[in-house]
């Protein structure tokens, strides 16, 4: 392929990577986790959550985050009790009704951006707060490209000296939250601005269907042209597919199909991913960075299981080697990248481990989860919570615990082991199916949000040429699918994957997928065409191999029956909230970590 006409050193480099990964496969698997041990591990993860949560409530609340080693607190986002907010749906997932209710009541009464809310009983306080916050973020989208500024003052709007450079992930990762808000408030403005931001980014993709890492929101010029699946880009890919799954908008699916095919064609070097120049596809950075670890989980949602398994094995080999994944692991030297030695309790590898176990029920993922729990318990546990690891080789602790540890890291571990025991939680057994946000929060696919029936009624409507083909369910779904979860929301997203990506027709999958509409590009269907840089010579890409145009497929999911969820009762937990209040004025727009 154009990206990699490898020289002899480059061939040797990828051969070493392959040997490294294959060696791990034969040596790393732990003894199998028994059902009883899975239950013990689930309870251990629950205790880990409460060790950190109680440490925050006792020593840091209502400040944003906990200092777990010194048992203090710090404001990192403006003083909004960030860790409490981030922990809400984990409390709900664990069935802790009392603490969840007390937390919601406190937030409704005390959280403010510059005004107070004093409502004695819950009456849409969180929705009102979300709408208030979103309206304060709207000025960030007032740019010529539609791509938002990276930050905004919540009281005064965008500062006149605010940087015009933002990341692709920051510009393309508000789709789910703003889309849900539009559906709940019946105000389309939130969904419209985030869709325009995605269109603005995608219209400026390269001729290879790759996007860079940073862009000028006024000129639309890419200021960093390194294309990858990790830092500064990761959740752009994630939200394309998840927005389609939650909202049924086929424009997101169209973009995802083309973007995913390009990523697998130019970035994937089985089982690793590299960063390349978005225009020439020349390798610029042979590095595994820890944020890439979400990718196998996303591939599970897309139905591309085989490469997800191989990549997870490679990524987990790094964890096994150091006890944690460093922020950067150099694939050329097979060593920790200089200046990227830390592990800030990131959840992405746990997330992919959970999704792969859910899809395959392979016990190796329980073994992986057990190893992760052991590393966290033995090396990261602090007196009042869990500490960042500043050096993965020496397991040196740092006095900081970001809120996502409670929102994501322990959540995915708990879900993994609860699934093995026999799930008793709202994600698996609740009245709705859920999409996880990039921060691990649960977004329910309710009729009000997902509009599944409306989506189905317009199935295939965009095919005007009369060549609509209906495929039988047998062609899209395994004849006797071993469902990972009865009535799973997720079906297989069909696309013409490149040869480097194996699409497994034997993958256990559920849902009903119908229809194919070949031949239309994203630009033909939605009028979004490629925008070339004004500084790029026209002949630059003439000799580059054009990526395969992905087929369009309408995907319709027919959910199964659901069962009622009855979370267990817990002790009252109100005393910590009675004496605290919080306020603040300045914050950044949400950015991917």
Automatic annotation (TrEMBL):
<dbReference type="InterPro" id="IPR012341">
    <property type="entry name" value="6hp_glycosidase-like_sf"/>
</dbReference>
<keyword id="KW-0106">Calcium</keyword>
<keyword id="KW-0378">Hydrolase</keyword>
<dbReference type="Pfam" id="PF01532">
    <property type="entry name" value="Glyco_hydro_47"/>
</dbReference>
<dbReference type="GO" id="GO:0005509">
    <property type="term" value="F:calcium ion binding"/>
</dbReference>
<protein>
    <recommendedName>
        <fullName>alpha-1,2-Mannosidase</fullName>
        <ecNumber>3.2.1.-</ecNumber>
    </recommendedName>
</protein>
<keyword id="KW-0256">Endoplasmic reticulum</keyword>
<feature type="compositionally biased region" description="Polar residues">
    <location>
        <begin position="470"/>
        <end position="487"/>
    </location>
</feature>
<feature type="region of interest" description="Disordered">
    <location>
        <begin position="556"/>
        <end position="593"/>
    </location>
</feature>
<dbReference type="GO" id="GO:1904380">
    <property type="term" value="P:endoplasmic reticulum mannose trimming"/>
</dbReference>
<feature type="region of interest" description="Disordered">
    <location>
        <begin position="470"/>
        <end position="491"/>
    </location>
</feature>
<feature type="compositionally biased region" description="Polar residues">
    <location>
        <begin position="560"/>
        <end position="570"/>
    </location>
</feature>
<keyword id="KW-0325">Glycoprotein</keyword>
<dbReference type="GO" id="GO:0044322">
    <property type="term" value="C:endoplasmic reticulum quality control compartment"/>
</dbReference>
<dbReference type="InterPro" id="IPR044674">
    <property type="entry name" value="EDEM1/2/3"/>
</dbReference>
<feature type="binding site">
    <location>
        <position position="438"/>
    </location>
    <ligand>
        <name>Ca(2+)</name>
    </ligand>
</feature>
<dbReference type="InterPro" id="IPR036026">
    <property type="entry name" value="Seven-hairpin_glycosidases"/>
</dbReference>
<feature type="signal peptide">
    <location>
        <begin position="1"/>
        <end position="30"/>
    </location>
</feature>
<dbReference type="GO" id="GO:0016020">
    <property type="term" value="C:membrane"/>
</dbReference>
<keyword id="KW-0732">Signal</keyword>
<dbReference type="InterPro" id="IPR001382">
    <property type="entry name" value="Glyco_hydro_47"/>
</dbReference>
<dbReference type="GO" id="GO:0004571">
    <property type="term" value="F:mannosyl-oligosaccharide 1,2-alpha-mannosidase activity"/>
</dbReference>
<dbReference type="GO" id="GO:0005975">
    <property type="term" value="P:carbohydrate metabolic process"/>
</dbReference>
<keyword id="KW-0479">Metal-binding</keyword>
<keyword id="KW-0326">Glycosidase</keyword>
<comment type="similarity">
    <text>Belongs to the glycosyl hydrolase 47 family.</text>
</comment>
């Amino acid at each position: 392929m154009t990206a990699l006409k490898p020289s002899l050193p480059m061939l040797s480099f990828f051969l070493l990577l392959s040997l490294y990964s294959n060696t791990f496969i034969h040596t790393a698997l732990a003894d199998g986790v028994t059902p009883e041990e899975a239950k013990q591990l689930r309870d251990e993860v629950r205790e880990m959550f409460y060790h950190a949560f109680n440490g925050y409530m006792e020593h840091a609340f209502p400040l944003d985050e906990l200092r777990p080693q010194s048992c203090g607190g710090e404001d990192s986002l403006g003083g909004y009790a960030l860790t409490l907010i981030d922990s809400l749906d984990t409390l709900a997932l664990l069935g802790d009704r009392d603490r969840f209710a007390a937390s919601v009541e406190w937030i409704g009464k005390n959280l403010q951006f510059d005004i107070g809310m004093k409502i004695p009983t819950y009456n849409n306080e969180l929705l009102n707060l979300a709408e208030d916050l979103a309206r304060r973020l709207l000025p960030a989208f007032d740019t010529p490209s539609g791509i938002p500024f990276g930050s905004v003052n919540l009281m005064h709007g965008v500062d006149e000296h605010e940087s015009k450079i933002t990341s692709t992930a920051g510009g393309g990762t508000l789709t789910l939250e703003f889309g849900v808000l539009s559906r709940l408030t019946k105000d389309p403005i939130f969904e419209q601005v985030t869709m325009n931001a995605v269109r603005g980014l995608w219209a400026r993709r390269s001729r290879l269907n790759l996007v860079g890492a940073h862009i000028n929101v006024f000129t639309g010029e890419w200021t960093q042209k390194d294309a990858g699946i990790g830092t500064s880009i990761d959740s752009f890919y994630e939200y394309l597919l998840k927005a389609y799954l939650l909202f049924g908008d086929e424009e997101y699916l169209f973009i995802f199909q083309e973007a995913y095919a390009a990523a697998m064609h130019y970035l994937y070097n089985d089982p690793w991913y590299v960063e390349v120049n978005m225009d020439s596809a020349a390798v610029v950075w042979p590095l595994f960075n820890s944020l890439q670890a979400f990718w196998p989980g996303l591939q599970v949602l897309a139905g591309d299981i085989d490469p997800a398994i191989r990549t997870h094995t490679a990524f987990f080999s790094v964890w096994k080697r150091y006890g944690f994944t460093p922020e950067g692991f150099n694939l050329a030297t097979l060593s920790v990248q200089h200046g990227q030695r830390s592990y800030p309790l990131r959840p992405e590898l746990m997330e992919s481990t959970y999704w792969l176990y859910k899809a395959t029920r392979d016990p190796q993922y329980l073994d992986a989860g057990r190893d992760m729990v052991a590393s966290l318990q033995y090396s990261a546990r602090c007196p009042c919570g869990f500490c960042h690891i500043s050096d993965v080789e020496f397991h040196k602790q740092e006095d900081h615990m970001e809120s996502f540890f409670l929102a994501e890291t322990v959540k995915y571990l708990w879900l993994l082991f609860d699934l093995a025991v026999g799930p008793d939680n709202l994600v698996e057994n609740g009245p709705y199916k859920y999409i996880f946000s990039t921060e691990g929060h649960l977004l329910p696919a309710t009729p009000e949000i997902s509009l599944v029936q409306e989506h189905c009624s317009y199935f295939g409507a965009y095919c005007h040429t009369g060549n609509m083909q209906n495929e039988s369910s047998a062609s899209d779904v395994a004849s006797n699918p071993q469902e990972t979860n009865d009535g799973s929301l997720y079906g297989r997203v069909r696309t013409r994957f490149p040869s480097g990506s194996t699409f497994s027709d034997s993958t256990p999958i559920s849902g009903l997928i119908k229809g194919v509409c070949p031949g239309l590009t994203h630009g033909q269907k939605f009028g979004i065409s490629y925008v070339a840089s004004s500084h790029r010579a026209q002949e630059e890409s003439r000799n580059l191999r054009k990526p395969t145009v992905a087929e369009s497929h309408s995907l319709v999911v027919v959910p199964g029956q659901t069962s009622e969820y009855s979370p267990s009762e817990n002790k009252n937990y109100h005393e910590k909230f009675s004496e605290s209040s919080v306020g603040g004025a300045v914050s950044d727009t949400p950015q991917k970590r």
